[in-house]
Design a protein that fits this description.
TIM Barrel; alpha/beta; 30% helix; 8-stranded mixed sheet; globular; 8 strands; 167 residues
Length: 167
């Protein structure tokens, strides 16, 4: 898996820790929601960053009260047909004000990268060896938008109103 963050291929410093494995003494870690709920105090007191991996059926509200202690949220896309992580991403960014890394993991497909980015994702685990090229191509395929989104690009309707006002 390649990790693309802010349009660049990067090394992933994060360690995914299974629920039945002892926590490493140092380094940034990603744990499941169940582990976060069970070991919240120990995880919150770590010197190194902590991230949480949410399955598609788990809600943003389950971690909202602890977002100030979470540096990364990895949202799972189990299949291309399951888009619940899009809604979770928008909730984390817009309702809960999460400013840390929002990572798309699982079945992350090229043709969904732009839409994931618009919902607030800034990091993507991509299976393709051409991850950066895929990212760059996906980000340049559309130049106009009809809906407002987390990326705050001006929708076409607002651009039309601005143009008419200028005339």
């Amino acid at each position: 898996m390649a990790l693309v963050k802010d349009g660049q291929a990067v090394q992933d410093p994060w360690i995914n820790v299974a629920d039945n494995v002892e926590l490493p003494s140092s380094g940034p870690i990603i744990v499941s929601l169940a582990r976060w709920q069970t070991d919240r105090d120990a995880l919150s007191s770590r010197a190194d960053p902590v991230g949480i991996r949410l399955a598609s059926h788990e809600a943003a509200s389950d971690i909202a009260s602890g977002l100030n202690r979470i540096s990364l949220v990895a949202l799972e896309f189990p299949t291309f047909r399951d888009g619940r992580a899009y809604s979770t991403a928008r909730l984390l960014r817009e309702r809960y004000g999460f400013t840390g890394e929002l990572r798309a993991v699982g079945n992350v497909l090229y043709d969904q990268l732009m839409f994931m980015h618009r919902c607030g994702f800034d990091a993507f685990e991509i299976a393709s060896d051409e991850a950066v090229e895929s990212w760059q191509k996906a980000m340049s395929e559309f130049s106009a938008w009809y809906q407002p989104a987390t990326d705050r690009r001006t929708p076409v309707t607002a651009l039309r109103h601005l143009r008419r006002a200028a005339e």
